[in-house]
TrEMBL record:
Name of this chain's protein: mannose-1-phosphate guanylyltransferase
MannoseP isomerase/GMP-like beta-helix domain location: 295-349
Organism placement in taxonomy: Bacteria, Bacillati, Bacillota, Clostridia, Halanaerobiales
Record keyword Electron transport present: no
GO function terms (MF aspect): GTP binding; mannose-1-phosphate guanylyltransferase (GTP) activity
Top-level lineage group: Bacteria
Length: 358
């Protein structure tokens, strides 16, 4: 049975000041006026799995928001991490709850805040990945065909000659590569055997449990102790105690970079991670001056900019390639080329005593 696990614990720091600790990116209506990013993710995957089989991984801060936005998801399917310890621990904990419900489940691990334009093709690929994962102890990932030399994503290097038997579009993974510089990213694009790492993974719950035991024994032992406590009065206490001792390690580094028998399916379904403000140029319609505007804006000689209002009139003169975001208690004005540095700005705000604005 396909059992989606939607990871919803991030804070979407590069969408500050709209994205905050109390209302991160996945809960915002960034690309659709009618639903948030996480609501769109659930709606999309519910074509393959019932709401009773969809799990959400998050933390205590967002549990209430998830229950409000996703009332159709059973409360017991919302797994709550005591604290953030990166994606390996997040997936490991969720696997325990999924295993209790269905030991033969095929987990489909998905980010909560990505855009998929071609839903039909996306669902076809997810189904294909699930069928491959059912066969043996295989780890399957979905990579995205790159169309430009992106430095903000990790890459998956695959072997064009090593295909899964009987499948022309499923390739053996050679290695996972961290975010490259622009020159390296251009080489990856030219070589044609690299895909963007989408963060989508498919495997049997029994398989990923074996992988934790083999490649992350410390985490595996902690999971075994947590497994014994789940469903008892000491569950929260034990989970907190075990999480406190864990290292913060991503699933990519902890498992995917070490394991054998990993396959990738190239995705061609109009994917976008909507990772920072400039991404809105790809998903929203621009005006005749190239500006992407939401709210009240009057501009003179203002071009190719992103302007997000909050009710008050925003006026601009002689600006180009900037991001302007107005919220109730903070305003961002940023060179579009520097939008990735908003994450650094948040750190400086915290150090300067502006925690209330985060």
């Amino acid at each position: 049975m396909i059992t989606p696990l939607i990871m919803a614990g991030g804070i979407g720091s590069r969408f500050w000041p709209l994205s905050r600790k109390h209302q991160p990116k996945q809960f915002l209506n960034l690309v659709d006026e009618d639903q948030s990013m996480i609501q769109a993710t659930v709606s999309r995957i519910s074509e393959l799995a019932s709401h009773e089989d969809i799990f959400i991984a998050t933390n205590q801060d967002y549990a209430t928001d998830i229950q409000m936005q996703l009332s159709e998801i059973p409360k017991d399917n919302i797994t709550i991490e005591p604290m953030g310890k990166n994606t390996a621990a997040c997936i490991g904990l969720a696997a325990l709850y999924i295993e209790r419900k269905d030991p033969e489940a095929v987990m489909v691990v998905l980010p909560s805040d990505h855009l998929i334009k071609n839903q039909e093709r996306y669902l076809e690929i997810v189904e294909e990945a699930a069928e491959i994962a059912k066969m043996e102890d295989r780890l399957v990932t979905i990579g995205i065909k790159p169309n430009h030399p992106e430095t903000g994503y990790g890459y998956i290097h695959y072997d064009q000659k090593d295909k899964l038997e009987g499948n022309e579009d499923i390739f053996a993974v050679k290695e996972f590569t961290e975010k490259p510089d622009r020159k390296t990213a251009k080489q990856f694009l030219d070589q044609g055997t690299y895909l963007w790492n989408s963060g989508m993974f498919v495997w049997q719950v029994s398989t990923i449990r074996k992988m934790f035991k083999k490649y992350m024994p410390k985490l595996h032992q902690a999971l075994e102790r947590m497994k014994e406590a789940i469903g008892t009065e000491s569950e929260f206490e034990v989970l907190t105690k075990e999480f406190e001792k864990l290292d913060s390690i991503s699933i990519d580094y902890g498992i995917m970079e070490k394991a054998d028998d990993i396959y990738v399916i190239p995705g061609d379904f109009g994917w976008d991670d909507v990772g920072s403000w400039p991404a809105l140029e790809r998903v929203r319609e621009a005006d005749k001056a190239g500006n992407v505007v939401k709210g009240n804006h009057i501009g003179l000689e203002t071009k190719n900019s992103i302007i997000q209002g909050n009710g008050k009139l925003i006026t601009t003169v002689g600006l180009e390639d900037v991001v302007i975001v107005d919220t109730e208690d903070a305003i961002l004005i940023c060179d579009k080329k520097k939008a990735q540095d908003i994450k650094k700005l948040r750190k400086q705000l915290a150090e300067s005593g502006f925690e209330n604005c985060l």
